[in-house]
Amino acid sequence: SCTVGIINGLSGWASSVDDFPADTTTLRFRYDVALVSALKDLEEDILEGLRESGMEDRACTSGFSVMIKESCDGMGDVSEKHVRFSFTVMSVSVLSDKEVEEVTIFTEPKPNSELSCKPLCLMFVDESNHETLTAVLGPIVAERNAMKESRLILSVGGLPRSFRFHFRGTGYDEKMVREVEGLEASGSTYVCTLCDSTRAEASKNMVLHSITRSHEENLDRYEIWRTNPFSESVEELRDRVKGISAKPFMKTQPTMDALHCDIGNATEFYKIFQDEIGEVYRKVNPSREERRSWRAALDKQLRTKMKLKPLMRMNGNYARRLMTQEVVEVICELVPSEERREALRELMRLYIQMKPVWRATCPAKECPDQLCSYSFNSQRFADLLSSTFKYRYN
Questions:
Q1: DSSP state of 244
Q2: Which PANTHER family match (predicted)?
Q3: d(CA 90, CA 168)
Q4: Which of 171, 182, 287, 387 is placed for a possible disulfide with 248 were both Cys, Cβ 3.0 to 4.6 Å?
């Protein structure tokens, strides 16, 4: 039996005379207790999974593996800024004595649902406050690291069973990844959290990128940033560490955040629409007044034809409504050249074909056809941007 309670979120940190009281209120559960509670909620599903897999209940008391997705996000649109750290039990699998491979006995049917996401820690703190964030999340990281090396014995179906936990930090948006992995903020010249590309390099090469950053490399680069072993200037040192400027304290999985992928693409398309209305490909350095008039024309067209009101800042709902073939047809009414209209239609068509791949939880199962054509489509998409729309990236 276990008691589930709320503990002081700063517990686990040794106090000293020099400590400054953290200006935050924190509520959190002990990580192991929260995991026990989540597994007990899934007890029936686990037992049913064993039966459906034809496994003898009494033979399966060890070899259970639990995949945990960790999420952490700031909630800046509320009156009191706060950060929530939560987890989701993604799957439970078992390797019995008679089997060679693990058998999955439970998979979370709705991994992105609010209902499957268990809160672990709530901090009344701004996610941009690096010092307080590290102080509060530090003990969680310590608990998680301890659990990686140990097994949990838990009674499921009346029998004690042994569980191992595997943690994957995939529920982070770009801002939070930069915060916990020690990278510069999103305005940095180092635009990517997955590779070392600068803005200039990314605009020249739109296709051939690979994931090169890692948590371990970020830690090594931080040490170089901190000690400057080669006595370099600030510019040389920054180039050497590729935008690492704080100590990484939490490992994240290299993933793309689908919501911000939508927002980033929609922001770029919104600018392309304005440029195409003003035929920027023919002009050199249009004035601010001209650009303002093109934006006004675009906003008016979207408002009257699509009921889309202008926004100060792009959000997910607006991005999803903007990125449709229907919107492109409405924009094309303001684009003088038929050739440019066709290019815009083609660009949106390719985008719509690629989008399901990064929105899907498991693309191979949910959209296999789009996944097969993704490589070709992304190549064509990049070719189109770097030829027909090259004026934006020169």
A1: B
A2: V(D)J RECOMBINATION-ACTIVATING PROTEIN 1, VDJ RECOMBINATION ACTIVATING PROTEIN 1 RAG1
A3: 10
A4: 182
